[in-house]
Amino acid sequence: MKSDELRPEAAPAEAETMRIRTLTGGWKALLVTWSVVTLLLCINQQFNLRFFVGFTFLNTEYYYILIALLLPLVFIMFPASPKADLHRVPWYDIALLVLTTALGLYIMAHVREAAAMGWERFGAPTPLVWACYAMWALLMETLRRTGGTALMLCILPFSLYPIFAGSMPRPFTGADAPIDETAAFHMLSSESLLGIALQSFAEVVIGFLVFGAALQFSGAGRFFIELAFALTGRFRGGAAKTCIFASGMLGMMSGSIIGNVLTAGTMTIPAMKKSGFPASYSGAIEACASTGAVLAPPVMGATAFVMAQFLGVSYAQVALAAAIPAGLYYFGLFMQVDSYAARRGMKGLPPEEIPQIGAVMKRGWYFIFVIILLVFMLLIMKRESHAPFYATALLLVLNQLFSDKRWGLRELYAFLEMNGRLFVELVGILAGVGLLIGAFSITGLTSTLTNEILLLAGGNVLVLLMLGAITSFILGLGLTTTPCYIFLAILLAPALEKAGLNQMAVHMFIFYWGMLSSITPPVAIASFAAASIAGAPAMKTSWESMWVGSIIYFIPFFFVLNPAFVLEGPLWESIYLTLTTGLGIIAICGGLQGYQVWAGNLARTGGMEWPLRIALIVGGFVLATPGGGLTGVPTGMMEGIGLAILIPTMFSARLLIGRSSATARA
Q: What's the rounded Cα separation, in Å, for the pair 329 and 554?
């Protein structure tokens, strides 16, 4: 693709959905101003710059300032109903903004005293308790507006649960808490509203959101996309392979699924359609490739930071653990596309549409230093809270010095507005979801449910894993990734850990299954966004996405069966398992798409096509599955069984295809 045909990254307006108001004038100025203040507060807190001479914020005070700044803007950005006017802010939303701001500041003013006096557990003054009631109600409304009614209806009963815990039937019986104590605990303790979810946002996520936005508004995004076209465009199915490569590179830097779709998809989806891919399949490939944004290190999105908090480890450890599963996922997508294109005789992009690699590197070589700095600070220095700020600063300096996408005041204003939108939406979700954690914390229900889940599984770990996968999948259909992960990290993860499974592998397992909502109906946010660009039916695109991304349904079981996949074991074992699993994935993709590398188009085998395809899928799955542990079958024997299925299948396919070709020539 010619460089002058590449459009710039999606502007914020393109990322808007119909449920978000178009802010203008004073409202936009307020959003930008609060975005700047939020950034300054975060930088002050993370770098200990002492902007406020003679005063140091407690962490809880810092969190409440962010709530007082950002949460009220939910009522301005998100209308109360889908039918509301998106160009006018009604009086009642203005009133809710004022009320939420006042309550946030009032509670913040008492947080220091509450911590000293233990008010989150008992004895909070009556006016403060009433303020907690009101904030509780407002949190549920902001959760409804940002995360949807389904998420609010999931969280609300659990937030009320401590009031009735003592009268609930087994296994849901817990310690009762009066409503005033429950409200105070939710709003004042560091285990509910101010718990893991909001802490992750305030301490780490803000910086990475800023870095992701800077990528979209600088020339870096264009550089990565052009590089993908230059490296993969000439191969068969080149447009789709470019999509996977470009979305993978952008996703590694941004951690944003929708941002990935709207940035890379606006260029890759038209290219795929032009080269012969159906519209729905083009959208599906982009949706699956963009979903990898939350799987691929070094930046994996908000859920990974929350996971690090839950596990009590550095984010770098989580990112390293995700490396092999993410690599296998993208390899599976690549092989799906390769087999699809080969079966249909599809070619690469025309040479005139592929930029020259030398020209691309000349225009954007300096952006590679940004990646090096980010990875160095995350994985070597382990400074995850500082890394995105330094990387953003370097990115902006290099962009202003060398890029033709230099910023002016207009670009800076748009950048700050986009950050404000991201901050407001994420706070609206994470603040409300925090109450779920608080409900289980105050009642002590988690340990009871852990024992009951183990009893239900009858002590069989494989049954427990299947229960976990089904539960994660069902919750993922109604919740977005972060709320789904938090819910299951509280309920399911302890049971799996108690059954003897590796802690990191368990949390990755529920993270991956919950993440499937991005490509699975009825949520399928990535598929729906890609469908709108492709001009394809949304539901058809989401079903195609499930088929294209089907390898991800297998991968979570692999790293639970053997934690070496998440680097919890000898390095040689991790490398060996990755290679054998990669071979298995090649066979699985060949069976799914009907074209097997080293054999050819299975359609030419006549009546043997489907038996051969099924044998490839079964043999590939057996080869990819690690032996030992839960399977009860040694690794060598597992691989032997897989090869015993695959080798005869491959030779048979090759022989039949060769005979078919010879007959056709005759």
A: 10
